[in-house]
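Researcher: Please translate sequence to structure tokens.
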Amino acid sequence: WAITFVDESQVVGGYANGDIRRWKIEDSQQQGPTMRAGGNIVESAVISKDGRWIVSGDRGNKAIVWSAATHEKVREFTEPNFWFSPDGSRFATASQTKGFRIYNTHSGDILFDSGQNSSSGPRIPLAWSSDGQQLFISGTGKMTCFDLSKFSSAEWLIHENQPVYIASNGKFVACAAGPSVSLWDCVSHQQISSTVTHTGRIQYVALSPSGGYLACSHG
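Model: Translation complete:
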């Protein structure tokens, strides 16, 4: 249900039974103990830029912060989706009832609150640009980019008029809708490659840090 890259050699996956597991790509061996989110479907997973934290979001409407070194639970949030900015100084959260918010990582202060009007479904996938000044938010058949330095926004349509799942490595944004994925430039907002089609409906998508690998999970 969820997948994210730790680095070029490992991924973290979230599962329907509430498990979160870390895997080595080369030999498909699990790394460390299984993290357990309490039986709810894990719908998102993210790694902090410094590699110290793993955050999972589940259908029980909570986000859990785990130690990447020990896989022990550190703390919980009541907003199920959680994304660190590239430098780790801020993080964005999203929920069906609260829309999305941006927090200061160190103080916990809310820097931006979209309000409930931006809530659009059980998943509101977000992605940051590499400089942390743009936040990409997906909707049904479209993408919205908020420029946090100018407090402005831009919106464009994508390849499918369906709910969109997105990921970014700071340079590109991968948009998965239905059975296909398109790649977009973070700066120009232009599509940069042909659309890739999968064998089934894509539930989650992730880009490796270099952009050399694209991972998809499907149901």
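Researcher: Any highlights?
Model: The domain at 125-219 is CATH 2.40.128.630 (Lipocalin).
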